[in-house]
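A reminder from the course coordinator: this example appears on the midterm review sheet, so study it carefully.

Given structure:
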């Protein structure tokens, strides 16, 4: 495959957050298959993204809220759950 230009650094960070539109994400996914430099950047961003959950203050939701959330997760897990599905559910 021919090397194309490197994606913009902001697009790499957005990719790590699953915040790109499908066409842009596909371009980067393809690029990462042959560009170890960009792959290393995305992996670093994903490590940081993985740590973000530890920066949020602890919150104990009401039982009915927790039950509703777990019902939604169970429904999604029963289908073909992906990050995109979870984000779509979250934005409703
Ligand atoms: Zn690259």
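Designed residues:
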């Amino acid at each position: 495959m021919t090397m194309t230009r490197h994606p913009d650094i902001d697009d790499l960070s957005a990719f790590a957050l699953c915040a790109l539109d499908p066409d842009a994400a596909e371009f980067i996914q393809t690029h990462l298959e042959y560009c170890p430099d960009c792959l290393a950047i995305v992996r670093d961003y994903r490590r940081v993204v993985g740590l973000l959950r530890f920066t949020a203050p602890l919150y104990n939701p009401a039982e009915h809220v927790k039950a509703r959330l777990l019902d939604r997760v169970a429904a999604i897990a029963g289908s073909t759950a992906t990050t995109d599905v979870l984000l779509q559910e979250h934005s409703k």
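Residues 76 and 86 are 8 Å apart (CA to CA). Residues 1-56 form one domain.
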